Amino acid sequence: MTATSDREQMAYVSAQAADARINVELDTGDMTLNIGPQHPATHGTLRIAARLDGEQVIAAEPIMGYMHRGYEKLCEVRTYPQCTTLINRIDWLGSFANEVPFILAAERLMGVEAPPRAQWIRTILFELSRIANLSLFLGDMGVQVGALTPVFFAFRDRERVLNQIEEVTGGRFHPNFDRIGGLKDDIPKGWVDETRSVMVKMRTFCDEMEDLLVGNEIFQARCRGVGVIPADMALGYGLSGANLRASGIDWDLRRDANPGLAWDQIDWRVWTHPDGDSFARYWVRLQETREATRMVDQLLDGIPSGPIMAKVPRIIKVPAGEAYISTENPLGEMGYYVVSKGDLGPFRVKIRTPSFNNISVVPWVMKGVYVPDVITILGSLYFILGDIDR
Amino acid sequence: MSLLALPYWQETAIKLGLALVVIPTASLILVYLFLFKMMAFMQSRLGPNDTGPYGSLQLVAEAIKFLQKEDIHPAQADRRVFRMAPVVVLASTFLLYVVLPAGPDAVVQNLDTGVFYAMAVSSLSVLGILMAGWASANKYALLGGLRAAGQLIAYELPLILAVMGVVIQAETLNLQGIVEAQATGEIFGFGAIGNPFILTQFLAFLIFMISAQAELTQTPFDMPVAETELVGGFHVEYTGFRFLLFFMAEFGTAFAFSALAAVMFLGGWWIPGFDVDDNVLNILGPGVMLAKILLIAFFIFWVRFTYPRLREDQLQKFAWKVLIPLALGNIVLTGIFKVVF
């Protein structure tokens, strides 16, 4: 026998064997699908390594770190005022909200307290960045399930909020406006009325989203019952923010652990939803955006007069000590654990970001779902890559 | 009857030239009107408005952009199949145009089994999509290709069954015959506006439009493309001109399906309520037809820009459990009415 016929013989035998195997059991092997790091649904560089059986996910694992920028380490070689430039960029959609807990931690270490007017304006800007952040989610969730139009409405209306933030701080995305002991500047003239009219528009935007997505049968079919996280699982994985509230747990740091901002002086409520599915997460965020516009309205009514800056030394040296301050950021609990040795800059900063914990539930919740549901769940968990990798 | 009594070869040359002009033009009209302008209007954007009058030259810019891009093959790709796939898809679109009538005589080929032929060639595109999905050697493309195969086969059935109602009522498979049946028909003795089948076959019209939406992989049913999941699905690896071919085929087919719907449900080139001479209709017909096509296409794209996307299993359930029984019921009803009246 020649080599060629040998090979033919082998091919024939193996083909026969393959046929025989198919007759017994159709063996469909698993396929590993890398969703990301370059994938539109991960809005950034998250990678989900998913093992698929057909279109069903057997196992999914989030792999992060593609955008790690080392902010915790970088903070150690900067002075306290310089740090805000960096931490602005952690959750880049709600950037002012990032600065607040860090500044509050530094203030606590120094024993300084910002004057009431500064605290109120901080709260207003905080809620404005929440609206800017969540409104983009409300539109973006549409894109995740295939509706193109809502996200453009979101971009259009978010711009109004960003304009208001820019008018006060000078920066649309990275205000870098919060200072130890107060704020950099006061609000400009006429800003209060403008912001009120913007809040009316944002409520209209929320109504539009309610019509376009929440009331849509296809959206409900795609989101209801998809990615259900029961309350105990949500607690077990350390979820926070709207993801936790959508699982029926009434937990909001603004109410439960207010670190001195004006939230306790206005009338508002925490929204929860008992279902824990993707739809519940969308619904809770929609209600939260509405609630935030109402909060801003109330806050605008009651801005106290007075200075916007407490007395702080020109060169800021923070006394030795440790402080952990966390606030209810748009994405969930964001906390800074600041360790000071009495220098110009922090000795160590540990940043607790909400998305990092929120994404940890992915392997559990994605078991057995279909590939389209992976995207729905990722969208509804709502993470910002900078918030995961920081 | 023919307006132009030309030798066969001249007639063929004219028809061929027209077909080559009509198909790119058709997809360009849809892209410009709906994808650029209407989409921008619905999404409160401006859309292209600088290049040429009302941004109409944007299309030329886009085409040039595609032409100057590099033609990339993935290293693992099955090159021959990979190259052939867009051509197969576009060929199916081209073949559809053969039977679309634009006037009493303005048709490339007046086939006696026009409806049958149109349904048959429209499903050829599945082959091209499957080829593209398989040959790309990309998992996303493969998933997209398989989804497309499942979806297009599932929705082919209600599409054909919906058309059956029209065929029963018109008593012919010839598209010209269907137009004439609508022009001369009457609804229970009332014949002033003829009988556009959208009135008597409304259920069939709805089923046809829904299935066409799925056949065209437009949004509630755009699983095979699914930009946010499969990043483009079967055409994820295509660049430049090959991608342009897919793109043209998508919109060319949208135009052709709108035309089919216009012929079968709105009366094609015939103007309701007017008794116009055939020779005049040969001139006016294309215009009337275009108006009706744009009306139908408007609905297709309106839905596309409004709705989210279904999941693959929901999509299959909808086809097999809702659309097909409805379409079968429609056939039975039509049959009964046909026999009784």
How would you describe this structure to a colleague?
The complex is a heterodimer of chains A (390) and B (341). With 390 residues, chain A is α+β, with helices and mostly antiparallel strands. Chain A has 16 helices and 8 strands. Chain B contains 13 helices and no strands. The mean pLDDT of chain B is 82.
What's the arrangement of secondary structure elements?
The complex is a heterodimer of chains A (390) and B (341).
Chain A: H1 3-24, E1 31-35, E2 47-53, E3 56-63, H2 71-76, H3 80-87, H4 95-110, H5 116-144, H6 149-169, E4 178-179, E5 182-183, H7 191-214, H8 217-223, H9 231-236, H10 242-245, H11 253-256, H12 278-301, E6 321-329, E7 332-340, E8 348-352, H13 354-358, H14 362-365, H15 371-381, H16 385-389
Antiparallel strand pairs in A: 1-2, 2-3, 4-5, 6-7, 7-8
Helix pairs in contact in A: 4-5, 5-6, 5-7, 5-12, 5-15, 6-7, 7-12, 12-15
Chain B: H1 8-42, H2 58-67, H3 79-97, H4 114-122, H5 124-135, H6 139-170, H7 175-184, H8 197-200, H9 202-215, H10 227-230, H11 240-265, H12 278-306, H13 312-340
Give a quick precis of the structure:
The complex is a heterodimer of chains A (390) and B (341). With 390 residues, chain A is α+β, with helices and mostly antiparallel strands.
Spatial order of the strands forming the largest sheet of chain A: 1-2-3
Measured by DSSP, the beta-strand proportion of chain B falls in: under 5%
Structural class of the helices, strands and pairings of chain A? alpha+beta
Overall mean pLDDT score of chain B? Answer: 82
| Cα gyration radius of chain B (Å) | 20 Å
Q: Helix amount of chain A, in percent?
A: 40-55%
Query: What is the share of helical residues of chain B?
Result: 55-70%
- Report strand % of chain A: 5-15%
Indicate the low-confidence ranges of chain B by residue numbers: none
Distance between the termini of chain B: 33 Å
CATH architecture of chain A: Orthogonal Bundle
- State the oligomer: heterodimer
| Most strands sheet of chain B | none
The poorly predicted ranges of chain A are none
In round numbers, the mean pLDDT of chain A is 85
